Amino acid sequence: MSDERVTHFGILVRGRATTVFPVRSKALSGLPQVRHSLNESLELVTKLYQPEEKRQSKPDMLKEVYKIAETNLYVQGHVPELVWFHKFEGTSTSKIRIALGLKDAKQAEQGSRVLCISVFRKLIPITTLSGKEFLAAWWQIVKCHRALWKGGVLHRDVSPSNLMGYRLRGQFIGVFNDYDLSSFKRDGPSSLERTGTVPFMAVSLLTPEAIAAKVEHSVRA
Hints:
The protein has helices at 26-29, 58-69, 93-100, 131-150, 215-220, and strands spanning 6-9, 17-23, 44-49, 82-87, 116-121, 124-125, 153-154, 163-168, 171-176, 183-184. By secondary structure, the protein is α+β, with helices and mostly antiparallel strands. Strands 1-2-3-5-4 form a 5-stranded antiparallel β-sheet, with helices on one face. It starts with 5 loop residues before the first strand and ends with a helix.
């Protein structure tokens, strides 16, 4: 078991968890970097998680993020690099419930989840920084967040664990990480649950009137 393995548990009675741990792969490490990425690390991490099936897939969401990064310097180099992705179709909770003949099988598609695995280039939490270096990385992420929002991408899960970065020729570069709960501004709400990490959500988002998140809510978080 790696000392670097991290498990994030959702704040829900039903429960869900995300597990992140280091992985080694000569094939994946040797893949060419995408144009927007500046992270030269050959170290990789794997993320196991179970998103709602109706949410935008991570590859599709990051494809839009990368498109913005190609023309916006506030985003270029400040978002994670997805190296590999796979969705295990057979783990769909709706399919499992229907196969088992459970009473709620007819409503199984609502909130249905599926197991996914993603591989990224390794990042460093900005919580390991201090002083001016921390403030510089944090401000880079704030500008990235604003640029993505203006580009139509809503992150929806701003929290300390999603503020990351890497070192490039001695300088720490801030990265706005984790787009599992993200959505496009053009789309309406698609989840049955409030989107975000509860301790870091604006109080106004915890009210019935706040289904559609605004950038001000993320800034307050």
